Give the backbone structure.
Amino acid sequence: MMLQNRVNPLGEIIRTAARGAWMGNRGLLHNDRKEIVRPFRLLAWITCVLSFKDRKRTVMSPGLYTELFFMDEATAFAAGHRPCYECRREDYKRFKEYWLKGNSAYHFNDKTSINEIDAILHKERMGTGNSKVTFAADISELPDGTFVWFDERPFLIKGDWLYQWSPAGYGTGIAKPGKMEVVVLTPASTVNAFKAGYLPQTGV
């Protein structure tokens, strides 16, 4: 049975035969029949490596957290996830450092708990009725790694190009408009972290 365990840039959990490059966790989302019954259970939405300390898991085991998968790290960020502290310690530290630098308006500091950042990310990714939160911005002001909703589809920004997302990978790049207001899928504070210097891994 093809499991519903891949995540797209809108944060939706979908079924696809395509494999992912990263794993994620939002808590226990499935029932004993391996069916998704909720979009999240935790406010800490994390992105993990596929292999860590030779640990072996049976996907969607009863009573354990639901293993989610992403095509690349940029997709995970667009969905509202951030690096795991345990298996991605250095990426976690870099993300927190650049998040704090890029979001100085919150007046946080190095002692700020990641729980406070997770609470902000949750408000930026999940709205009323579990709908995707987006915002508008000029595409010329958005950094590489950001996802936008363009021509009714999700596109990744990289350099002077836009790449259409699919579960199996990206399409051929199209030229990025010089200036245009677009709907942004990546949470606002994560975009600010990218502007401050965090460069997410992409499949392009």
Summary: The helical segments are 73-79, 89-102, 114-125, 188-196. Residues 89-102 form the longest helix (14 residues). The mean pLDDT is 96.
